[in-house]
Design brief:
This protein is mainly beta. It contains three helices and twelve strands, in the order βββββαββββββαβα.
Length: 187
């Protein structure tokens, strides 16, 4: 991961081998759960991967601003028609940034506890869905100002979760269907 700041935008370069495939400039790719547009793709050499131009707002309201050179990020291409869908609908529209409160191994699995902005708490329900850095997860526990999810060893191994620690920021996206239900109830 490399970052270049311009006057009103940021260029983010992400090294990747597995996600290149038939990806084209203009395709949507989620980086830590934030939907971005690929503006450059390099398929050969040491700099294999993607470049993205971020609006200053995207930089300011996500955890992408906490990235450093070499940071590990989660990448996911947009869902294509006819594909199986594991997890829940994740749009890549980050609702807020939370902070890891607790991150500990319990038996073979891991418990990830995240503090969230109070305004976001109405979007969580027990056993409901949440995306943490773009990873579709199930809410295991709710607190007044946060939630916890269980992480299996495979998920920890193949995502950026293996690199995170207490205090780190994570992008949060609440369940899309739940958002629509809340909006209708609040009318």
């Amino acid at each position: 991961t490399t970052i270049e700041h311009g006057s009103d935008s940021v260029t983010l370069a992400v090294a990747a081998d597995f996600c290149l495939g038939d990806t084209q400039v203009g395709d949507s790719i989620a980086v830590n759960g934030c939907c971005l547009t690929a503006t450059k793709i390099t398929r050969r050499g040491k700099s294999r991967g993607f470049e993205f131009n971020l609006l200053r707002e995207s930089w300011d309201v996500t955890n992408l601003s906490a990235l450093k050179r070499g940071s590990v990020v989660n990448l996911e291409r947009a869902l294509a028609l006819g594909q199986r869908m594991g997890g829940h609908f994740v749009t890549g529209h980050v609702d807020a940034v939370g902070r890891i409160r607790k991150w500990e191994k319990q038996g073979k699995d891991w418990l990830l506890d995240v503090d969230t902005p109070p305004a976001l708490m109405s979007g969580f329900v027990p056993k409901g869905s949440v995306a943490v850095d773009g990873i579709s997860l199930t809410v295991a526990k709710l607190r007044k100002r946060g939630f916890a999810v269980w992480i299996i060893p495979h998920t920890r191994k193949v995502t950026n979760l293996r690199t995170l620690k207490v205090g780190d920021p994570v992008n949060l996206e609440t369940d899309l269907l739940g958002k629509y239900v809340l909006q209708q109830l609040n009318r």
